[in-house]
Structure formats: structure tokens, C-alpha cells
Amino acid sequence: MSAPAAALPPFRTEDVDVRDPYPLYRRYREADPVHGSGRAWTLFRHADVAHVLTSRAYGRGTPTARLPEDCPHLRRTTANWMVFMDPPRHTRVRSLVARSFTPRMVEGLRPRIRRLAAGLVAGLAQEETADLVAGFCAPFPILVISELLGVPAEDRPWFRERAVGLQQATSSRVARSPGAFAAAEAAARDLDAYFRAELDRRRSSRGTPADADPATTDLIAEMLRAEEDEPLGEDTLVGTCIHLLTAGHETTTNLVGKGLLALLANPGQLALLRARPELAPGAVEELVRYDSPVQMISRWAREDDEVGGRKIPGGSHVTLVLGSANRDPAYVTAPDRLDIRRDARRHAGFGMGAHYCLGAPLARVEAEEAFTELLRSLPWLTVAEGPDAVRYADDLVFHGPERLLVRPGG
């Protein structure tokens, strides 16, 4: 097996400049793209990342091993998230959701998504200086997924608080906060109780008619109908509802926040998208490629494998740096240049293979409507002045600004 071209220190997320991780990614991608030893590896090239994501030699695994025993609701909830399942269980659950999460349903939501975006932007327009994350990027995807799940409007602030609480269980946040697991457990307990009660209520009222208009139906009703053909159990249904609520929250928040920052930093591309809003679908793909909202994910090697000339032993933990793969010049020309007209559809930002993001169609529509409404209604939008106008969260996995001060009127 070949050795790395140059010795580099172990890759650690704490060594990365969270505002701009790409120079360090480039260093490893060029000098040691299959980085590691023993049973811990980090991959930086697009081809290698794509290989692992599409190979049956690797599995997703379950996170429960790292969760405390005194977090029973959190352990049960995450054990029933399809993102942590492997076939054949993953195939069954994904099939259930896919039958409900159809392009017809997502497209039917577009008018409601547009209205939600317009309402939030109208609120921003009244401010001299506004935090785009707090005022738009964070509440927008929660409002959308709440619409999709049929959550009443009055419950949505409560849902957002629990979604944020549940996300405290990520490895990077647990390392920074001793109370993170307790917050996530409390959120999981509350959401578990809510969705069990909601499923009971839906069953007693027999749900929405199967041929309902997609503008009035919702995902819970669709899943209950689909489950009649292939029952998966209450825990799986509840876990899936919670997963759908939380999975797209932070990722879409970061996609919109970082995407707008990238456009504002590239005025030519910003002007082009303003002048030609029909370019929004391709622009979203390029913005995901250019600055991925999820920078890295992991897999476990089920068996020995070879990647980039190096042996990956079975049982190894493999970190896939999506942000680096999407900037690989072997995959795309001039990768550090934003070009909303390029064909970026082969990016790794939504994953690949069996675990390709099921919510990608919804994320695309959300981002299209978000950028279109922000650029249409706030033609003079700029980032506020000052060193603290943009503050990134200390998290390289779910990567994006936690504060983004803007001047809606320029």
C-alpha cells in the first residue's frame, strides 16, 4: 500500500479556521488525502468520498453507544432515525417515507413555502439592522417542516426550541457543554410524547383522504396510510417524525445563511441571480457545493477495503470531509470560484448512495424560495459593518453562522 506523499499532523477539527476551513482542507487533500492510520481515517478527495458513500463495504451504524444510559428517550429516538440505520431496516423505513415525501407533495408545498418566506422577509424589512439567522434562516425551515408535518401554527415556537435542544447531542456540542445531553434528553422526551399523542389522534380521526389535494395534506397522514401496507412500529414512526422535524432544520439554516454570504461576497453572481431568478435551482446546487452546510459525516468499514492505495481495515471509523470533496479540482474546474451557472449536481453536499438525503428536494425548494424572496424584496441588502457582524458557530460538522447582522435597506 502506498504511504502519504508528505507527513502531516493528525487532522483535528479544533485546528480548522471555522470561518474558512478550505485552505486546510486543500493542504490535506493535496498531501495526504487518505489521512490516518489504524482504525481512524479521514478522506478529502471527491472520488474517495464517493467510493465510501456508495460502497456496501461501509455502514452508517447507530449513535446509541456514545449516548449516556440515563438518556432513554434520546437513545430510543436516535435509534429510530433512518440516517443511523443500515439495510435492510434502512431500506424499509426509507421506502415508507419516500412514498410520502414525493416530488408532488414538495411541489405542492411551494406556494406555502413562498408565503412563509415572504412573511419573514417583510419582518426583516422593517429593521435598520437585523440578525438574518434569528429573523429568517433559523425559523424558516422549522415553519416549513411544521407545515409538512401538519403541526399547528401555535405549536411552532415550541417545536423550534425542542429542535435546538435535540441538536445539543452532537459530538462537538457535548464536548463544549456539560449540560448538552440533559437538554437533548428533555427535548427528545417532549417530542416523543407529542408525536405519540398526535399519531393516536390521527388514527382516531382516520387521517386525511388519500386523494387529498397536496396543498392540504401532510406527511404524517401520508405515512400512516403507507404504514397500513407495511407496519414498522410506533417507535419507528415517532422517531421518523422527530427526525424529519430536526434533520432539515440546522442544515437548511446554514445553507441559506452561508449561501447569502457567498452571494454578497461575489457581487457579479448576486447581480446575475437577481436579474435571472430562473437560475435559482442551479444556484442552490452550486451554493451547496461551494460551502456545504454539513462539512463532514462518518461511516464504519464493515470489511477490509482499499481507498486511494491505502488499506482501510474492517471496523475502522472513516470521516468523509464533504466540504473538501466539493472543492476537489479533480471533480470540478476552478473549485474555489462561485459560478451559479455551472453544473454542480454531482456534489456530495446531500450525500450519495443509499443514504442520499431524502429531504434534498424540500431543501432545494426552500433555498430557491428563500434566495428569490430575499433578493427580490431586499434589493439593497448588505452585511452590517463591524467585526462581530458575522459570527460562526463553533461547529465544523453543522457549519454556518450563528449570527449574521445585515442592513436590509443597504
What does this structure look like?
The protein is α+β, with helices and mostly antiparallel strands and 410 residues long. Helices cover 50% and strands 10% of the residues. The protein has 16 helices and eleven strands. The strands form three sheets. It has a five-stranded mixed sheet with strand order 1-2-8-5-3, sandwiched between helices. Strands 4, 9, 10 and 11 form a four-stranded antiparallel sheet that branches. A two-stranded antiparallel sheet has the order 6-7. A hairpin with a 2-residue loop joins strand 1 and strand 2 (40-43). Helix 4 packs across helix 11. The N and C termini lie far apart (56 Å).
Briefly summarize what is shown.
By secondary structure, this protein is an alpha+beta fold.
